[in-house]
Design a protein that fits this description.
- Chain A is mostly beta strands.
- In chain A, a hairpin with a 6-residue loop joins strand 4 and strand 5.
- Chain A is globular, with a radius of gyration of 13 Å.
- By secondary structure, chain B is mostly beta strands.
- Chain B is built from no helices and eleven strands.
- The radius of gyration of chain B is 13 Å and the shape is globular.
- Classes of the chains: A mainly beta (114), B mainly beta (111).
- Chains A and B meet through strand 4, strand 5, strand 9 and strand 10 of A and strand 4, strand 5 and strand 10 of B.
Chain lengths: 114, 111
């Protein structure tokens, strides 16, 4: 157990809908990163939040957006869902931004888009 | 594009045997990490090796890093059925703010 929690565990949506996924970081961590993992693939970096500001973004369209709150928990929002958005969404928290800091992953949210 | 590529894509061995997985990457790195993932669940951090290190050990795990060949290997000795999982290497990206994962090696340890 890493202390990183995500909700919900599973989610089913239809194409065109919007979804919000939530992540609570490990105590003391001020950085949260979000990853998308398609079936049989490695995680792909979506974006990172550090002290409530976006601090780096991967190759994902603007309909993927996020928030980080003062308690460092975070949300991932996806608008206009597409079938290819079906994936496991992972969040990871770390003590600080930067690649020298170990990331602790949550159990993920499995999103299915029909 | 993916920075790291694991090899082989899938590996099946008997309990007690050693398992070796390899990771190749394209650009220079600051560190490389190995993770384990059971059945589509969260990732578990195994080992971090920095670019100035050549080898690290943790229990039954041994990781090597060859920066001249841009490659790393993960050795699991005396494998157990519980080691059955997908294993990923992750390297820091050009932007330095996140890790880039390869597609993973699916390891099956048969009892």
């Amino acid at each position: 157990e890493t202390g990183v929690t995500q909700s919900p565990t599973h989610l089913i949506k239809t194409r065109g809908q919007q979804v919000t996924l939530r992540c609570s970081s490990q105590s003391g961590h001020n950085t949260v990163s979000w990853y998308q993992q398609a079936l049989g693939q490695g995680p792909q970096f979506i974006f990172q939040y550090y002290r409530e500001e976006e601090n780096g973004r991967g190759n994902f369209p603007p309909r993927f957006s996020g928030l980080q709150f003062p308690n460092y928990s975070s949300e991932l929002n996806v608008n206009a869902l597409e079938l290819d958005d079906s994936a496991l969404y992972l969040c990871a928290s770390s003590l600080a931004s930067g690649i020298l800091n170990e990331q602790f992953f949550g159990p993920g949210t499995r999103l299915t888009v029909l | 594009s993916q920075q790291g590529e694991e090899d082989p894509q899938a590996l099946s061995i008997q309990e007690g045997e050693n398992a070796t997985m390899n990771c190749s990457y394209k650009t220079s790195i600051n560190n490389l990490q190995w993770y384990r993932q059971n059945s589509g669940r969260g990732l578990v951090h195994l080992i971090l090796i920095r670019s100035n290190e050549r080898e690290k050990h943790s229990g039954r795990l041994r990781v090597t890093l060859d920066t001249s060949k841009k490659s790393s290997s993960l050795l699991i000795t005396a494998s157990r059925a519980a080691d059955t999982a997908s294993y990923f290497c992750a390297t820091d990206s050009n932007y330095g703010q996140n890790f880039v994962f390869g597609p993973g090696t699916r390891l099956s340890v048969l009892p």
